[in-house]
Known about the structure:
Helix content: 25-40%
Structural class: alpha/beta
Number of helices: 3
Shape: flat
Amino acid sequence: LAGCVEDRQEEKRAVQLVRQVRGVRQIEDYLVVSKRAKRRDYSVARRVRSAVTSRYPRLPVELSVFGNVAVMTGRVPSARYRDQVRDLVENQRGVERVVDKLQVQGRSRS
């Protein structure tokens, strides 16, 4: 669960709603409580996306930023590319944690 909420009550409601979804076994809560976080998230996300697309213009990597957490999804051709993209994202200003959901083509990754 990732995104920005305005207060702890809204965070609690979001977690409760997700728990009610059939099939949900575990919740990873990456919610950020901040009224100003959305603007900061957008700025960091734009900078991170620019760095990744400049270096790897043909990789179908999706990036989302929630607070100081960058979430990477998509498919890459090799573990080496996955590691390189993760290293690039980790070293961007404003990113303190990377959630790596990238899949290597031909392999599934949990």
